[in-house]
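Record 1 of the preview.
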Amino acid sequence: MQGHYGSWKSPITSDLIVAETISLSEASIDRNDVYWLEGRPSEGGRNVLVKHSSDGEIREITPQPYNIRTRVHEYGGGSYLVSDGIIYFVNYADQQIYRQQVDTNTPQPLTTITKLRYADLILDKNRDRLICVCEDHTDSEQEPENYLASIDLQNGTIKKLAFGADFYTSPRLSPDGNQLAWIEWNHPHMPWDESQLWRANFDKRGNLENRQCLIANIEESICEPRWSPDGYLYFSSDHTLWWNLYRYQNEPVSIYQTEAEFAYPHWIFGISTYGFINPDKIACIYTQNGRWYLALIDLKTQQLQPINLPYTNIFCLKVQEEKLVFIGSSPTQTAAIIQYDFKTQETTILKNASELTIDLKYISCPEAIAFPTDNGLTAYAWYYPPKNSDYQLGLDEKPPLLVKSHGGPTAAASVGLNLRIQYWTSRGFGYLDVNYGGSTGYGRSYRQRLDHNWGIVDVQDCINGAKYLVKQGKVDENRLAISGGSAGGYTTLAALTFHDTFKAGASYYGVSDLEILCKDTHKFESRYLDRLIGLYPAQKEIYVKRSPIHFIDRLSCPVIFFQGLEDKVVPPNQAEIMVKALRKKGLPVAYVPFVGEQHGFRRAETIKKALDGEYYFYSRIFGFSMADTIDPIEITNLT
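->
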């Protein structure tokens, strides 16, 4: 049949997406059992621990109302630990650690101090205690204090182990339990800009002694320390401008050098990109040109052997002898918990994020594009063309384009099957997922393009990506929209305010006033803007110059705002100030606040309303009819 782009009837509905899709995170292995967290929109975004037994049984472990999620750094991660059938987890409601036997349904509190938060839990068997990152919010007038702490498993007593730095992550015990390694860093750096690798011994009382700072170089980021079975300390470093693997033997010794990234930026705790099969062999994942690969590294020969699997987005790799587990997805498969056996070379899917079976005739596969951008440079993106085989493409029109500016901004667009992207492409939109300068996965130099240039480089790359597709004849230059969340929301608002390429946009908990963000955000990101923008208040004029809120007179296209009212990272006033100004100016604007939502939407009803609401908004602005029946969104000043 024929139908105008944007108006196509699609089987990929918002109801289907929220009802049948969960998020998967924090995979782990204990004995022969595999565990992971499921984020369930249908349960208000509750995170539940699930166990896959060696006999194939899948069982939910976490009883209601517990929700496994830590708020350390606000972004969390590393929120549970399983060891010998005993679970230790952080409960979201009170941020306390609970202990639970796998075979029981009754978690017991281990900690009780209400002003402390915990993450990155590890077990110190020799001393019958946990070691973790602790974030102390006791003094509400000061920024919280972060340190490494031990927690006695008999009485819950908490003791500081390492303190004095602004931030800590990745405490890791040596195989004999006698040494501890960790990463720390200080303001104004973020961990992907500059961090330090430390190592210490334990004295007889379990305190740290003989502390050594092994690596503390300017403009060098250390990631993911891990001990080999024979007691050597491994880690990732980007001192060659790419996060590659090293072993510490009085000095860093390269394991394998290549222009690829073997690490993620430490936005969250518990990141795992490699593990030991034995003392001589590592299983690892790495990213190159925007996609992820699984591989083996022989530590004796320093040779890398890729494992040929269809997955293009891989994370959370865990290794146990001849078995490994990871979370992977591909352009035609949503995320799944996957087990790989080295001996048989077979993969087994333990759990899919979505059990939906969608005909491939509705699935748009991404095309990797490299396009020219400002200053003679090249930027990268994934382009998803409209795809719905129920419709012919013979009409004399080109499709609208939705440009996605990812969050972070130190993050990246992935290439696994994302049904929220397919929602758009199956209705006749083109979709451009931009890895603008500043994104990860392309080396430190590419990441540093954004230094002092946030609101410039990212915006220009999104604009130039859209213009590239227009020049290629793929999309309609009069129906270009841009959408983004958090930092991507700022990129969206800056693109709409300071340029006229896009005709509409959507901001999800985006930043409109950089000064407010600088003054009113959490500790982890409180100095992030020093590098992205400049020092404040010394360079206040730059903050003002790049804040869309001060230049409403230059914004001349419709915008829709989605905002969680409990957001502590980008507070609601960021959206509300902008909306008020746009209403006063007379521009079409919509504001959709969500009670109880924080930074990133987790509830099914929120995800549905936001997705459908953005689609409804564009239908009104671009003037196409919808095949779906969608509750209307109030759009002020739309005639």
